[in-house]
Specification:
single chain; about 200 residues; alpha+beta; Glutaredoxin; 9 helices; 4 strands; about 50% helix; about 10% strand; globular
Length: about 200
Amino acid sequence: MAHIDYYFSTISPYTYLAGTRMEEVAAKHGATIAYKPLDIIALFSRTGGTPPKDRHPSRQEYRAQELVRQAKKVGMPFNLKPAHWPTNPAPSCYAFIAAAKTGEGDLGALVASFTSACWAEEKDIAQDDVIKDCLTRAGFDPGLADSGLLAGAEEYARNLEDAVSAGAYGAPFYITDDDQRFWGQDRIEDLDLYLSGKL
């Protein structure tokens, strides 16, 4: 059975634009998924990347154009300049980690819930009430927002180290059990083709 390590950030616009398409691909191929939320800004600094605000204007301008185009391409509502971005992703990631440990619920829907709140709904996903609402919408107990914070913080930090060791440098980043790497929501089709034996 195939396996995918999924590195993502709850404040990444590209993670948002991935929606649940990767989960659909995994289900098609019977692949398991290990969800690994991480600090994307720390990942950039560890792997030679640059935070969006520090990039050359030409790179910022291209990013703005490309995000709008990709949102149209996948048919998703998108706000290029959300009211609450950047924000602290750690609380939502801790809640996600707590939800994952329950072994139930739809984790793909929870990623989509957090990222949609940020990039389409003008909500601050660092706020407790927003986190609880996202948990509820994805079918999880909202009380998970208040549980396992220390364990969540430890796993969040460990995910960053795992990402660096595995060769991930952005989000979303998908790595198969045979070390094939796919960076970006626009590479989900390639992941599908690879798992189909066509790439």
